Amino acid sequence: MASIIYEDIKDRILDLSLEPGSPISESEICDRYEASRTPVRTALHRLADKNLIDLLPYQQSRVSLIDLEAVKEFIYARVAIESSVIRDFIDLDQPLLIEDVNHLIRKQEIILNDSDFKPQDFYYLDVAMHEVWFRAVNKLAIWKMFNVSTDYIRVRILDIKEEKDYQAILADHKELVDVIRNKQIDSVYPIIDRHLNGGLYRIEARMDDKIRKYFK
After folding, report:
1. Is the Cα torsion angle 133, 159, 16, 111 positive or negative in sign?
2. N or C: which end of the chain has fewer CB within 10 A?
3. What is the pTM of this model?
4. Four-point Cα dihedral 166, 155, 186, 125, nearest 10
5. Which CATH number does 68-212 carry?
6. Residue in 73, 77, 74, 69 with CA at minimum distance from that of residue 215
7. Under a CB-based contact definition with an 8 Å cutoff, are residues 196 and 79 in contact?
């Protein structure tokens, strides 16, 4: 039961159904999952260990705010490493793997036209696309490291939710594939830098009171 509660609340935090800063009530969670306090407290402590919630003694616990500076540092490191990974991927010269990437981009286009579109579905297709080159050059351990930043995941989901024109994101993906196919190694870094920072720039550009309250 603790694992079920943990996974469900984690998913709701990551897809922003539970917004950063929103209160967490132990008794309400007990009622929602028809569970006793023991598994609920176990789940909450696991969420706190992952920095998804703040357990505040003698105060109302809450969903953790997003650390924007930590996200910027994370992106800085990822741009440097992923650019190197993509250059190694280009050296492999594997057209079938490039088609795998194209297939994932086409799926992104399809779900964007779905009336039941969910931002997290688009995000996970994006994750799968980037994973292709990490897997191809045997750097999955690094890739897994990149997928533990809950602050970064929430920034990406927020960008997808708030962005009304997804063509900028898709255009980055398509341009990156063209660069890979044409082996334009010198173009990799500027494109991946723009792509990975794009969501952050878009969020900062529209930072109103609604969005600002999500951040530390």
Report:
1. negative
2. C
3. 0.86
4. -60
5. 1.20.120
6. 69
7. yes
What are the tokens at 143? 């890739």
CATH of 2-63 among 1.10.3720.10, 3.30.70.2190, 1.10.10.10, 3.40.190.10: 1.10.10.10
**pLDDT tens by residue, 119-143:** 788 888 999 999 999 999 999 999 9
Question: C-alpha distances in angstroms, 166 versus 35, 90, 156, 212?
Answer: 40, 26, 13, 22
Which residue ranges make up each domain of the chain?
2-63, 68-212
What tens digit of pLDDT does each residue of 63-77 get? 999 999 999 999 999
Residues 6+ apart with CB under 8 A from 101: 129, 132, 133, 177, 180
Confirm if 21 and 214 have CB atoms less than 8 A apart. Answer: yes
